[in-house]
Amino acid sequence: MISKLPKWVEIGAFILALVAGCVNAVGLLSFEHQAVSHLSGTATLLGADLIHGNSLDALHLLGVLLSFLVGSGIAGFLLHSSALKLGRHYDTALLIEAGLLLGALWLLFNGSGYGHFLASAACGLQNALATTYSGAIVRTTHVTGIFTDLGIMFGRVLRGEALDKRKAKLFGLIIIGFIFGGLAGAWLFAQMTFAALYVPSAICILLALTYRVYSHRNPELNG
């Protein structure tokens, strides 16, 4: 169960959720009010554009969807497994995510909508960093599933089952991180416009370096 997850997962999940919330806030405020950290709204807009004959907009939204898929594919190629274990290439994935965000920043500053694709790929890569391990679903770029799981947990508590406190704590940290990331992203965009993406990029780089140092200092935990 989730009790088997290493302690560093909680800290990492909070920071990654904060990054995603920040990127998504920039997206909502700048990318034609379009979310990039999750795809439900994008898929809905794609359907609406198709029914209204907005072929160019539909093509752009399709690009956003496919970019998220490509980002997830990069993570799948690097990590080889859904199990969370120290020593895997999370640092490499985080550095790639930072590079994608910096590329998105450069393109958007130069008026290119292709920046949306890179931002979406970065979120897809991040969302695939931590998937399923010991029955725990860990997603850091959206909170719909997290709220669903919390609701199921509390429903079971009302039925008399024990609350999995560690799972509730992890989910709570992801929700708080995403909300505070959105707050930070909105404030940064008001001050810096697209340069706000420097902040989540820097966090990814710092997190990657911290992970690499920690992994090297604890070789006995590597998987």
List keywords for this structure.
two-stranded antiparallel sheet; 223 residues; 8 helices; single chain; mainly alpha
Please give a structural write-up.
70% of the residues lie in helices and 2% in strands. It is built from eight helices and two strands; from the N terminus they run αααααββααα. It has helices at residues 8-30, 40-51, 55-79, 90-109, 114-127, 144-158, 165-192, 198-217, and strands at 132-133, 136-137. A two-stranded antiparallel ribbon has the order 1-2. The model has no long low-confidence stretch (mean pLDDT 86).
What's the SSE blueprint?
Elements: H1 8-30, H2 40-51, H3 55-79, H4 90-109, H5 114-127, E1 132-133, E2 136-137, H6 144-158, H7 165-192, H8 198-217
Antiparallel strand pairs: 1-2
Helix pairs in contact: 1-5, 1-7, 1-8, 2-3, 3-5, 4-5, 4-8, 6-7
Give the structure's gist in a few sentences:
The protein is mainly α and 223 residues long.
Oligomer: single chain
What is the tally of beta strands? 2
Placed side by side, the strands forming the largest sheet appear as: 1-2
Largest sheet: 2 strands, antiparallel
Task: Spell the H/E element sequence.
Answer: HHHHHEEHHH
- The termini sit apart by 18 Å
Q: Provide the helix percentage.
A: over 70%
Structural class: mainly alpha
Total helical elements? 8
Shape, per Cα inertia axes = globular
Mean of all residue-level pLDDT scores: 86
What percentage of amino acids are in beta strands? under 5%
Poorly predicted spans: none
Mind telling me the C-alpha Rg?
18 Å
